[in-house]
Amino acid sequence: MNRLAADTWTLTQRDLRHWIAQPTPVVIGLLFPVMTVLMFGFLFGGALSVPGGGNYREFLMPGMFALTMVFGMESTMAAVVADAQRGVTDRFRSMPMASSAVLLGRSCADMLNAAAVLVVLVVCGLLVGWQSHGGVGATLLAFGLLLLLRFALIWVGIYVGLLMRGPEALAAAQILVWPLGFLSSAFVSPETMPGWVGAVAEWNPLSATVAACRGLFGNPGVGGSWVADNAVVFAVVWPVVLVSVFLPLAVRRYRGLGV
């Protein structure tokens, strides 16, 4: 166990050093959600209505918090594919280290990145008029649910990245992340969508986290459905299910590389 923790921390530090040495992708990853907030909050917000009324930017920010956790899958997949393409993964597999430490190091680094993105987005949200009206406990729980979603999606990203054989396949996989993000309640209520589309959006794991965060932050939200009324439960259940499925798949795929 001590060896696993030491190897995991060593590989986490490796990723952090890469970000320091090559900060441009990290900075772009931090600024992109800020740009999206400004675009939807000020350019499109006036044309979008909030269910039950309220400030659209307060409705938007919980959706943006969760959407950023989803878009983080792209960087996870890209990092996994890049290591495989450069032969780094094969070198790690040949070294005397715990095999699971490679994947855990990747997940720890990505969680630190997710936390940094959330801090930047919170500051952006406060500047555009968003605030949490819930108590300290509810606010911390909301951010915990966001990071739980990111943790689950990291393992989805690692598994998909291990399946990819080149940049073309990676680009196709990354494109699929966008429908997952936008086919949700992040920007508008599922009630405004066509019947079957709204149903898919409502059952999207992202929508559960968005609805739970809106409720915990005391922001305008979407209610009235069984899923929305039990959003906190689903915001825990969905990530647990994803981790239960994709973490073992990712570990098995990693151990089976080259076999």
Descriptive report:
- By secondary structure, the protein is mainly α.
- The chain is built from eleven helices and no strands.
- The longest helix has 30 residues, at about 55-85.
- It is globular, with a radius of gyration of 19 Å.
- The two termini are about 25 Å apart.
- The mean pLDDT is about 85.
Q: Estimate the helix proportion, in percent.
A: over 70%
Through-space gap between termini? 26 Å
Q: Any idea what the radius of gyration is?
A: 19 Å
Number of helices: 11
Sum up the overall morphology in one term.
globular
Q: Provide the succession of SSEs.
A: HHHHHHHHHHH
Largest sheet: none
Class of secondary structure makeup: mainly alpha
List segments where confidence is low: pLDDT < 50 over at least 5 consecutive residues. Answer: none
The beta-strand count equals: 0
Descriptive keywords:
single chain; 259 residues; mainly alpha; 11 helices; 79% helix
Short description:
79% of the residues lie in helices and 0% in strands. It is built from 11 helices and no strands. It has helices at residues 2-21, 23-44, 56-85, 88-94, 99-128, 136-163, 167-182, 195-203, 205-217, 226-229, 231-255.
